[in-house]
Amino acid sequence: MRRSYFMGFGLLLVSAFVLCSAGPGLLADDPAAEKKEVGLAPPTVQELTDKRMVFMKSALSHFTIQVENRAEPAKVGAPCLRWTDPVSSSTDGVLAVYAHNGGRPDAVAQFFFNARKKWVAEFTIIPDGGVTVVRSGREFWKPSEFVCKFADLPRSPVPATKPALRLPQMRAIAADFSVVDYFGDPAIKQDLRLLPQPVYRYSEEGKITDGAMFVFAHGTNPECGVLIEAYQDADGARYRYAVAPMSIYQLQARYKNAPVWSVERRHTGRNARSYYAGVYTPEEGESLPE
């Protein structure tokens, strides 16, 4: 009896020793214990940046631009500019173009994360009529006023015959523009900065030999665009231009110090007449990154 007792007691001691010697390996099947030991590293800045870019491109792909005289709607291209704005505290945003086959834009979109931690979509309309913004196959917004108008550029050079020579011409023309933005509420008058390279280059078979879209910005945040085109028709080759708002605020543009275009501050949301700006609502099952 005593022998059995000691044998049983000895087995208990051996079992306890084995468990203690084995350490955490025998507990590895416990997910909670394993997670507590290993832990999960927070995402890196680059991982967050990449995640936001994937989301912004996906969100813009839900929209198309229908122009009444075209059978197919324009779809968004790859973002042509990624920006931040220390003035408005918008931490991440992109500029992207909706166009047909590398032609003149039908619309220019901005999509960004603002200081209120909201994702915002904005649309600049380039044609002078008959445009509908469509989201996921349904009419989303239809502008009733069109403020982007093309006109001949006075005192401009004759367009060069080669694209490589036209680019410096168009850059020089863009440098002769200046844009003032009455930014914020209350409005503060600010001179916008011209980004030296065009963010989008295009052409169309027929009359538009070459085109370039330049932007005027806070930091790198586009607030206004200037489109410059080498245009060819029966009257000959010449440069034309149009100014495109990329902000809800009042804007004034000058060319060679002479006023050429202005627009008042505009409303936001679907009641807007010429420029859409509104908080983005996610599609079903779509998550919003920060």
Topology:
Layout: H1 2-22, H2 31-38, H3 45-61, E1 63-67, E2 75-76, E3 81-85, E4 90-99, E5 105-113, E6 119-125, E7 131-135, E8 138-141, E9 151-152, H4 163-175, E10 177-183, E11 188-191, E12 193-194, E13 200-202, E14 208-218, E15 221-233, E16 236-245, E17 250-255, E18 258-263, E19 275-279
Antiparallel strand pairs: 1-7, 2-4, 3-4, 4-5, 5-6, 6-19, 7-8, 9-16, 10-11, 10-17, 12-14, 13-14, 14-15, 15-16, 17-18
Helical percent range?
10-25%
Domain tally:
1
Succession of helices and strands = HHHEEEEEEEEEHEEEEEEEEEE
Number of alpha- plus pi-helical segments: 4
Question: The biggest beta sheet, please?
Answer: 6 strands, antiparallel
Give the terminus-to-terminus CA distance.
Answer: 71 Å
- The residue-averaged pLDDT reads 88
Radius of gyration: 29 Å
Keywords: Signal
Signal peptide: 1-28
